Amino acid sequence: MKNKLSYFLLVSLFLISLDTVKSQEYYVKSNLENLEIEVGEVFEPSTYAVDENGKITACPNLVYYNKNGALNRDDGISVSRRSGTIRGEEPGNHKVVALCLGLTDGWLGRDFDVKVSYAQAKDLIVKLNSDQVFVGSYVQPSYVITDNYGFTRYDANIKVEPSNDNIQIDALNNIKAIKPGKVTLTFSLDNVQATINLNVVKNPINNLVLSSDLNTARTGDVVTFSTIAYDDKNRIIADLPIVYSYSGESFDKSNTAAAMIRDDGKFVAETAGKYLITATAGQRSTSIPLLVYDRGIQREVINVGTGIVQERHTSDFWVFEGVDNRDYAVSGTWGADGTTYFWDVTDPAQIRKIDSIKVDARTVNDVKVSEDGKISVISREGASNRKNGIVIIDTTNPYEVNIISEYTTNLTGGVHNVFIYENHVYALSNGERFYVINIEDPSNPYEVGMFEIGEKGQAIHDVWVEEGIAYTSNWKHGVYIIDVGNGVAGGSPSNPVVMSNYSYESGAHHATFPFKSKSTGKFYTILGDEIFPQGIDLYSTNETAGFLHFVDFTDIDNPVEVARYELPGHGSHNYWIEDDILYVAMYTGGVRIVDISGELMGDLFRQGREIGHINTGNANGFIPNATMTWGAQLYKGHVFYSDHNGGIGSSKVLPIKPDNSRINEYLDTPRLID
Amino acid sequence: MYRIFIALLFINFCYSQSYYVYVAAESDDTVSVLKFDGDNFEETDKVTVGIMPTENEGPHGITIDPLGKYWYLTLAHGSPNGSLVKYSTENNEPLSKVELGLFPATMQISPKTGLLYAANFNLHGLMRTSTVSVVDPENMVEITKIKTGIMPHGSRISIDGTTHYSVAMMSGELFEIDALDLSVKRILSLDNNSNYRNAMHHSKVKPTWVTPHPNGKKLYIAGNGSDEIFVVDLESFSVEDKLSSGKGPYNLAISPDGKILLATLKSEGAVSIWSLKNNKLLKKIKNTTSIPHGVVISPDNKYAFVSVEGVGGDPGKVDVINLETLSLQGSINVGKQAGGIAFWKIEQ
Fold this sequence. Notes:
The structure holds two protein chains of two kinds. Chain A is built from one helix and 58 strands. Chain A has four domains: 24-117, Immunoglobulins (Immunoglobulin-like), CATH 2.60.40; 121-201, Sandwich (Immunoglobulin-like); 208-293, Immunoglobulin-like, CATH 2.60.40; 301-653, YVTN repeat-like/Quinoprotein amine dehydrogenase (Methylamine Dehydrogenase, Chain H, 7 Propeller). By secondary structure, chain A is mainly β. Chain A starts with a helix and ends in a 21-residue tail after the last strand. In chain A, the strands form 15 sheets. In chain A, strands 21, 23, 24, 26 and 27 form a five-stranded antiparallel beta sheet that branches. Chain A has a five-stranded mixed beta sheet with strand order 47-48-49-50-54, with no helix packed on it. A four-stranded mixed beta sheet of chain A has the order 2-10-9-6, with no helix packed on it. By secondary structure, chain B is mostly beta strands. Helix content of chain B is 4%, strand content 54%. Chain B has one helix and 28 strands. In chain B, the strands form seven sheets. Chain B has a four-stranded antiparallel beta sheet, with no helix packed on it. In chain B, a hairpin with a 4-residue loop joins strand 21 (260-265) and strand 22 (270-275).
């Protein structure tokens, strides 16, 4: 024992001393220390090791890289491992790490602060939309700056000097026309200069007439203001830049009159109140009032029935009419044993589990049913043989479902989501691409096509098909709209053709629902985020975040993000739209029912567009009373849902109750703005 | 008699040792910390991993730094790239994360360079040449990706830390990387595929693991498709022997004293134990559930810990094999699809 203990102590001492000696033995030195380079400049570092006595030793192998920080992204400096050089890419303070490999046992390296600055400007071009400006207006020049390395510079602090006092420059470099007359503006940066001549003229506007398409509105209604400018001979002055602004007072004295107004005169209010809209052109302005009332669309939502899943997490679901004209649902399970449940929901108050099927998987994330109700396709992840793929199920008799076939070719990486459209299954593969599988003969499925966006780091999370057009949700690469049989772009299931794409900054694009507004005729895609800001706890409630982005795709080549639905404190997941009403599963926020009729602009939640909501947690669920709504579907007048922690359920939006109180009577006799 | 009893008790107390291992459950998004004291096997901690509660992120590979301060976990699934996460062994809290390639799997830290080398298995989808990611674990930055073969796996470092080995499952190749200059030095086709990195080769050998012998002279490779264990001579860089392994050898481990080799036999639900003195099979031990995956051996050569996946909703397991008696000594349930396993420490 003594020997053994001594041995143990000796080894421990040796390891400790080895670590201490090792960390003190060498120190990395480099001419990277306090280095300053310019954008575009290439620098060849010289790095070596120094021991405690100051003796310099060469590193057998040197590796440089730019330290990326928490997000592992910093393109400020690029490193060529082949040539051992670094190059400044973006201005700022960056870190370069030098590793000295092979000299000692273990890690030997050091971080160096490297400052990258813009190179001196070589060329400066200034442009103006017009060489004529009205007194009282601001001049907005644009700049093109090219540096000594030929790169375009941004964010440069350009100095502007007028030749006389017809123009005034403020502390923030805003250029305002003050007096009529000619003036020369001199722009300078580093050692380069550019000049432009300007003619300041008297504002010809004698009268501004502001009008709107509505005199009163509800919160969330988009009101369009337009302005016509007349000169002193009552002639219309065309193409004048108009600045719109608003002021207001909320009916609720403890609230702010919050609204949004755009440069094109579109206005939408979030709170009810009295508003004054102002149009300004130079020194001329005019205002008109607008009364905004509460949208007043709230309705009661009641829980009708539940189909509890107590043993495991629930994933996606689908409600459908069977071949016997009864109503059924299918739901998947998550992180479990590959079980899929089938339900009779003909009476939404009495949801009954009628059959189940177990496949070799741990997660059946998605389930879909063909339009005729005969075929269900379920996705597989976590198969023991790692082949995953999809399973095709005969649902002709949902009380006794049978597996027809499974299909795994090219789908071994796990299938997270599927869609069935016109005898084809659109199945995601490994979160990278989707395959199109013909299931005309469901016992012999075969691949007919494949689509991937072709970007570096391409990812896909969901696919939805309507009218021969597929909408894919691709995280940072946003939505792709793809012709898979519509024909508008010559696409087919075997030849998917991209029609359009839109992405947004957060990169959290998780689901897409196409939406043709019945009330306006506009076409939107509604793009949902999925974000878990605090990570994950499988056994309790999680914090969720993210929202729905409303993108106006009416002009498919020029999509414009116009509105959002963001529920404070809760994140979005899957959703459904019918008759200009959105039914959205907001994870911990339950099912939210939202009026999306009319033109859409701004923050829809804050505009009071929410009709009602229901929490879907269940006291008898897998995690009791922990709402985590996965998906929602309107079906024959009921709002069905699946809850990750509880199972499935149905709810009902009740009709509007007549308001017999006198609480809101002032709304019918609104006060005019003073 | 009483004195002898007290003395034995004292000796037993002085000699009692606890063995700690980490095991990842790929379909459960959990990692279990296990303690085995020679008799009892217990789970001392269970760590939920990943950041998306509604996505299975697939913890696959796990390794511990040479000083035992940190453990590193590959998450196979991302959007779509997987990632590497660094945790503290002190409290099992995550410290940092870096994105790697598609399905990052096995990995190891070189004691020479201090860098971590992770094979991007890219197990699923199209047959494409994949890579080994080199990560600086101090800063958790991926320094480079070194191109290897189709479905690289079994990322292992030579004892002196200067050389990295991996095998490409579908192109049937062994890759030798210089861990210092980060370049591929030698490639060996295990089934006479003359066209390196051939995506259309579909190797019959399907190598899934490579492990160097402590003497630095040989490598052992699991031929998962051909049911063989390849013995590679490092000097000539050629196959010098093939052992008939049993069905579906998957992971391998050699005892630190270099005397025995263990192979998990995925298709048999068993572990085979070989003497490396004469390359003879010593024993085959049935696992407690189906699909054995990883295997690690304690530094004192006494025990082997084997992760076993199970199927569907079955729990994963870790089986302990006594390498002195060549018998199953214990087993414990962990999360579903137990895979990556790493030995942490022996505590006196």
